């Protein structure tokens, strides 16, 4: 009896045989979540579209493309969390798309619109902005020990892009030529770029939950903000991001005055373990 056991009664037969060995040798394939990555690709397209529009001299549409990329970038993470489709691939894809849409694209557009006339100073400002955006994104990826998630450490790259592109959109709508505002764009590009890599805290709005109930006056206030933006989008959005771009320094001074911790992220002094990071 013992010498004639069936495969059904002896699980080791499948392990020792071809079937079990084949299943162990071939791990299950991992797929890519479609929905959140569609939003990321759409945000990437917004940055690419903006560069193409700038090459064709249509700078208002270039600015609109960056703002559209901002909206889409804010949605991909929320969609991934709501549908439980977060992945390491999605995080890397999001960072690469952000580098194009909020790093390279604003630098190239600002150079093409205004900085080109400054010669070496022009590409210096454009490169500083682009490099700081890359450093900001790299620091964000490796620093996972966040002290206070209500704040970003440094100006977020979408807000920095909105600050530069908001100014260009406003100037184009008011028919100011880029050559007359070259040094303004120079200063704004340096400010936005360097503020991205500072330790200044900027409010992240991560504690704002869409599912929470709000007072009726809150809905009225949101409606008023939307109405004001619709009156003159370039001016309203530029003013909004000027306020946000300066708010971090106000928070920094206030926290310093109250004796609270101003550095909100544990900055690592060692290189992160990159084993398997690029596979």
Describe it for me?
With 279 residues, the chain is an all-alpha fold. It has one domain: CDP-alcohol phosphotransferase transmembrane (TM) domain (Four Helix Bundle (Hemerythrin (Met), subunit A)), CATH 1.20.120. 65% of the residues lie in helices and 2% in strands. The chain is built from ten helices and two strands. A two-stranded antiparallel sheet has the order 1-2. The longest helix has 26 residues. The relative contact order is 0.10. The C terminus is likely disordered.
Summed up, what is this model?
This protein has 279 residues and is an all-alpha fold. It has helices at 12-16, 18-25, 34-55, 59-82, 88-113, 120-142, 157-173, 182-196, 216-231, 233-258, and strands at residues 151-153, 201-203. The chain has one domain: Four Helix Bundle (Hemerythrin (Met), subunit A), CATH 1.20.120.1760.
């Amino acid at each position: 009896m013992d010498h004639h056991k069936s495969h059904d009664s002896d699980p080791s037969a499948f392990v020792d045989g071809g079937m079990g060995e084949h299943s162990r040798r071939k791990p299950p394939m991992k797929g890519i979540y479609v929905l959140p990555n569609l939003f990321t690709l759409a945000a990437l397209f917004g940055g690419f579209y903006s560069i193409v529009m700038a090459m064709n001299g249509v700078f208002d549409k270039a600015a609109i493309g960056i703002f559209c990329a901002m909206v889409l970038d804010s949605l991909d993470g929320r969609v991934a969390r709501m549908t439980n489709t977060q992945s390491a691939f999605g995080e890397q894809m999001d960072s690469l798309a952000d580098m194009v849409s909020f790093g390279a694209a604003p630098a190239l557009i600002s150079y093409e619109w205004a900085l080109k006339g400054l010669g070496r100073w022009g590409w210096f400002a454009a490169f500083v902005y682009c490099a700081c955006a890359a450093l900001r994104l790299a620091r964000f990826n490796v620093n996972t020990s966040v002290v206070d998630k209500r704040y970003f450490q440094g100006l977020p790259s979408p807000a920095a892009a909105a600050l530069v592109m908001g100014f260009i959109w406003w100037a184009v709508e008011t028919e100011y030529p880029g050559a007359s505002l070259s040094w303004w764009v120079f200063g704004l590009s340096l400010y936005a770029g360097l503020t991205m890599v500072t330790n200044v805290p900027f409010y992240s709005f991560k504690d704002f939950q869409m599912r929470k109930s709000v007072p009726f006056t809150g809905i009225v206030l949101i409606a008023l903000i939307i109405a004001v933006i619709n009156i003159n989008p370039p001016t309203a959005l530029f003013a909004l991001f000027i306020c946000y771009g300066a708010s971090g320094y106000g928070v920094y001074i206030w926290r310093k005055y109250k004796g609270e911790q101003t550095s909100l992220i544990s900055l690592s002094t060692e290189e992160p373990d990159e084993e398997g990071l690029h596979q």
